[in-house]
Amino acid sequence: MKEARVAVVGATGLVGREMLKVLEQRNFPLSNLDLLASERSRGKKLEFAGEELPVKVLGENSFSNIDIALFSAGASISREFAPIAAKAGAVVVDNSSAFRMESEVPLVVPEVNPGDISWHKGIIANPNCSTIQLVVVLYPLHQHFALERVVVTTFQAVSGTGRAAVEELKRQTREVNEGKTPTVEVYPHQIAFNVLPHIDTFLDNGYTREEMKMVNEAKKIIGLPELAITATTVRVPVFVGHSESVNAQFKKPVEPDDAQEVLSGAPGVEVLDDPFSNIYPMPIDCASKDYTYVGRIRKDFSTQNALNLWIVSDNLRKGGALNAVQIAELLVD
Q1: d(Cα 197, Cα 199) in Å, to the nearest integer?
Q2: pLDDT classification of 1: cutoffs 50, 70, 90
Q3: Could you list the active site residues?
C-alpha cells in the first residue's frame, strides 16, 4: 500500500472518532492526518496513535494537500464541501445520504461490490448503517440461491442519531428510575423503556426516509433494481448495535444448513447460531467488533424457498467508520 494524506471531516462526532480508532487499529498507511470539524470544535485536540492532534476548522481550503477525505458530518456539509474536496484532487468517501442514489456515485460495501470504486468521479458513498449489515449477509446468499424478495424490520440503536440521542437515553433512564417525568428533546417521544417505529421523516407513501433508504440502497449495492424489498425501521433503547429481523425468499431451494455453510465462509460475516444453547447475535456482544453477526437461521414454513434471519452489527463501526476505511484501503491498495 502507498501512503495517503487523509482528512476526517466531522472528526469530533461519534462516527468521526470511530474512524480515528479504525485508522489506527488497522495501521492505515498515513503520511498525514488532518482532523476537520465545525467552528464549535476550534481548539480541541483528539488522540491518535499516542499523539494529540489539533482539530482544524473545515473550510474551502482544507483539501489542497489531501488524497482521501472521509466525511461524516451530515448531508448538508457533504453537499457543500465534498465537491470542493473532489475538485481539489481528493477522493471523498462520504458517510451521509447526500450522494448515495446519484447514478454517477458508487455506493460501496467492500464485501459486496468493491469493483464499483473503479468508476468513481471523485466521490464514493458509504451506505446507510442498516443497509450495510443487511447486504453483507444477503449478498453471499444471493450468489448461491438468487434473491427474490426481502422483508426487513430493524431495531436501531440511539447512537445512529448521534451523541445527543445517547445522552437523552441516559438522562431519561435516570429520570424514570428517579420517578421523574422524562424530558424529551431529540426524539418525538420518550425513548427510554420504549420503542419508536419512526426513524427520520415520514413520506407521502407512509414509509420513512430511513425505510426507503434501505430499500433503494440495497437494490443499488446488490445490483438488483427489480428486487422486491420492504422495510420497517424502529428505534430502540440500545446505545450501540443495530439488529434486524429479515425474511428472505429465493428463486432456488435453500435449507438453513445450506445458508449457514455459505455464511460461515462469507467475508465480514460471523455465524452465531446455536439457539438451544442460547447462542445468537446480540447488540451487547457486537459493540466495537468488525463483524456482522447472523443467527436464528431457520426455514420460513409459510412459503417456498424462504428463510428467517437475525442480523446484528455495530452501527458506528461496520455501519459507518469501518466500511469507510475499508473503501479507503481499496483506494490505496
Answers
A1: 7
A2: low
A3: 129, 242
